[in-house]
Amino acid sequence: MGLQVSFHAPHGGADFLGMRKARSGATEIVYDDGVAQRMVWRVTAAKPDEQRISDAMRLAVNSARVVTTLYDELTKRSIAIERVGL
Questions:
Q1: Which domain holds residue 15?
Q2: pTM score of the predicted model
Q3: Which residues contact 43 (CB under 8 A, 6 or more apart)?
């Protein structure tokens, strides 16, 4: 993956969003709230546009409702995901 992406919430929260490559080669998005919740989603596109995913993640982590905003931003960009881990 040429683009390494991770973001921490600037509003005092411990929210973290990151993008990584799985062992299978699939692109994954990781969310961690720093306390009790960690979620992992797989991007279902064969060749995902990492810049568009990064843009959606940047907007999401700057909002008060990170996960909801992430879903909204990915949907706006027609980026399909499936939840694969907790």
A1: 5-85
A2: 0.85
A3: 26, 27, 28, 29, 53, 79, 80, 81
How many alpha carbons fall within 13 Å on the CB side of residue 48?
28
Question: Three-state DSSP class for 17?
Answer: strand
Dist CA 15 CA 79 (whole Å): 21
Reply yes or no on whether the pLDDT at 78 is more than 90: yes
Using alpha carbons, select from 10, 79, 82, 86 the residue that is nearest to residue 50. Answer: 79
The total number of structural domains in the chain stands at 1
What distance in Å separates the CA atoms of residue 18 and residue 45, rounded to the nearest whole number? 18
**Which are the contacts of 79, defined by CB distance < 8 A and separation ≥ 6?**
43, 45, 48, 49, 52, 53, 56
Tell me, what's the pLDDT at 53? 95
